[in-house]
Amino acid sequence: MDQMGIHYNIWIVLLSFALAATAAYSALNLISQVSHSMGRVRRLWLLSGACVLGSGIWAMHFVGILASHLPFKVSYHPGTAVLSLLVSMFSCYAALQIATASRQRMWRFLIGGAVLGGGISLMHYIGMSSMVMEAKVHYEIKTQVLSVLIALLAAYTGVFMFRRFKDYTGFSRWKLYSALSIALAVTGMHYTSLTTSHLQYENWPGTNPVLMEADVILLTGISLVTLFMLALSGGAVFLDRHVLERMAYHDPLTELPNRHGLERYFKDDFFGGNSGAVFFVDLDRFKSINDTLGHDIGDLLLREVSERLTRCVGGKGKVFRLGGDEFLIALPDCTIGAAEEEAQHILQELKKSYSIEGNELYVTASVGISMTPAHGTDRSALMKAADTALYTSKDSGKNKFSVFDLEMNRHQVRRMSLEKDLRKALARSEFMVVYQPKWDSLMNVTVGLEALLRWRHPEHGIISPGEFIPIAEETGLIVPITYWMLHDVCGQNMLWHKAKVANVAVSINMSARMFENGSLYDVVEEALSRAGLEPHFLELEITESIAMNNMEETVAQLSKLRNLGVRVSLDDFGTGFSSLGNLDEIPVNTLKIDQVFIRKSKMHSKKAIISNIIAIASNLNMEVVAEGVETTEQIELLQSLGCRVMQGFYYGRPMPVNELGQWFIENTA
């Protein structure tokens, strides 16, 4: 090349293009991380990419100048040279910020390309003005406009290609094309501008500004900037691969892969074999450990559990922590028989004792298993199936494993449908209360009623309490439902009093949820006050598990209610986990013998248990009610053992209000 006495070294020209292309590709690699980041991390990736691209453009410009052999000595003003570098970096940052916005629009690419092309041009002319030589550069307007247009068009082309690879961090041909376009914008603008310029020789004025000598100092500066560019790019890649990636794809507590790592594993490595297994592992009653011993002990326990799971799986698959006490195991090459053996091995290992900071802990787990391709051919379907199987394990008693089947899926779909409808049932007045009499078998009179909740579903008819009550308990909906029931029962009982139909106490089953926030006393008092009902006409039934859970607080709340005059009964006595040593501390009026003992009362052992319960109640001055009475033989046995108050189908089934009124009339006589 030869223009106006300027001679170019073609190899250095090619080197300048290669430098610009390399810098652009390195910057675009960094920019690919932007869409996967947010906040400060996103700005850090943008800044890194802008610095690499800006310094590469600047280095290319001065390498291009080094490619020329001028017939006179050239020096450079350091301040202006540094200014051109800053302009280059700033324009790159602004262009990349605009072009990598989450909402891609054509006008953003246009503005981004214009900012980048304009920055390249401005950097070029500032860089040229930093040259101090015995000549002046005269630019031809038309060719300079052409050089700027080349920069704008090529920069826009490179920016426009962002949409093809902005989310992809690996190699992409579109990323390469974009880098070449940006390199063309830089070199095309530079050499078009320079080769069409005219040099006018003259003696330079006598001022002596601070100058730096070419070529050694300039080459040193370019080398340092290039090293900075490469170091920044390499450091960012290292940070991404070894620090940020680990932070993004691994759980900091257990160092197991997290949900993001799970997605990547299923995308790249899991599928491909003939069959595979996915395990959902959830610890049973882990919350109680956190609540009693603290979250620090809980975290240490989770680490121990993760280590045991990793040892169990070994090299056969991979273990992931999904959050809390939930783990997932993926075995890419596994039959259903091998999966069941593995699940049994996991349960055996996890239930062994843990020694953590002087605490000997025991924990069990529930496992749900799904198989590919039988239960799904993608991650989402397999996880859903395994989760459904896990719920089955939980519902069937915990410390078990279950393999997904279609019946489970139907059950889970119905459960989710009922949960959705249950949230609307109270507002739609779909609940009703039925009443079952309590009968004094010696006096032949009704001495009480038990209020029982029923749900009239608009599509499925009457839903069994055994099906919807656990859902209400789990979701917390049992609390507003019980509030409603208290008001309804107290109001109905008062109507019976006024009509002189009945004058007995009505009992309502209480959930453990009702004792959690300490407001049960206020709720009961409000219901009684609004209905105008005397407190001794209301009885609250609790189970042994409720009484023993946070016993001190529960006893305090029940004592306040007893002092108010409300009666308390202990339901299903003999089937729970209460200690006889604590029974006298629980403020109850009545023990209710569970129907499981009545149903098998012909057995000598059950008869002995019934006799002992009646004796305990008598010694503690408590009343006794026998549930589930259906035959005259059961009545005679209970009477012989000293129990007179009974409840069951023999005396009356649960009845709605309209039927119960007639029942009262018929049985009062």
TrEMBL record:
Domain EAL: 415-668
Superkingdom to which the source organism belongs: Bacteria
InterPro entries documented for this protein: Biofilm_reg_signaling, EAL_dom, EAL_sf, GGDEF_dom, MHYT_dom, Nucleotide_cyclase, Rev_trsase/Diguanyl_cyclase
GO CC annotations on file: membrane
UniProt-listed Gene3D superfamilies: 3.30.70.270, EAL domain (3.20.20.450)
Family annotation (Pfam families): EAL, GGDEF, MHYT
Transmembrane segments: 6-32, 44-67, 79-99, 106-125, 145-162, 174-196, 216-239
Domain GGDEF: 274-406
Keywords from the UniProt entry: Membrane, Transmembrane, Transmembrane helix
Aminoacyl-tRNA synthetase listed as a keyword: no
Positions of the MHYT domain: 8-200
NCBIfam families tied to this protein: GGDEF
Name of the featured protein: Diguanylate cyclase
Organism name: Paenibacillus borealis
